[in-house]
Amino acid sequence: MNTQQYTVRANRGRPRIWIEGARLERAGFTAGAHYTITTKAGGMSLTLSDDGRKVSGKAGRPIIDITGANCAPFITGDSVAINYRSNGITIKESKS
């Protein structure tokens, strides 16, 4: 498991979680792949699926951009831990 500490930023006044690069590829989230977001108490999970949202970007630089209400339960300024696994990504409130 690979963990990244991240601060939820803002884009046009709305919360935004921007994830890109090699960590996504190692977790199986390549450009063009599809995934779903599941919100849980205190966090969210991103899971590869046959339909749903599409990973943006290009080969070698995949991008996942989660904005606005899709960032719930997080708000701008929250510290989160993004955990990359071979079977998906979890985003939880960071204790640090």
General description of the model:
The chain is mainly β and 96 residues long. It is 5% helix and 57% strand. It is built from 1 helix and 10 strands. Strand 9 and strand 10 form a beta hairpin. The chain is globular, with a radius of gyration of 12 Å. The mean pLDDT is 94.
Reconstruct the topology from this structure.
Elements: E1 2-7, E2 9-11, E3 14-20, H1 22-26, E4 34-40, E5 43-49, E6 53-54, E7 56-58, E8 61-67, E9 79-85, E10 88-93
Antiparallel strand pairs: 1-9, 2-3, 3-8, 4-5, 4-6, 5-10, 7-8, 9-10
Number of strands: 10
Supply the helix-strand structural class: mainly beta
Q: What multimeric state do the chains show?
A: single chain
**What level of helicity do the residues show?**
under 10%
Order of helices and strands: EEEHEEEEEEE
Biggest sheet descriptor: 6 strands, antiparallel
Query: What is the radius of gyration computed over CA atoms, rounded to a whole number of angstroms?
Result: 12 Å
Distance between the termini: 18 Å
Strand content: over 45%
| Contiguous helical run count | 1
| Shape, principal axes of CA atoms | globular
- Uncertain runs: none
Strands of the widest sheet, in order across it, are 1-9-10-5-4-6
**Rounded mean pLDDT score:** 94
Describe what is shown at a glance.
The chain has 1 helix and 10 strands. It has one helix at 22-26, and strands at residues 2-7, 9-11, 14-20, 34-40, 43-49, 53-54, 56-58, 61-67, 79-85, 88-93.
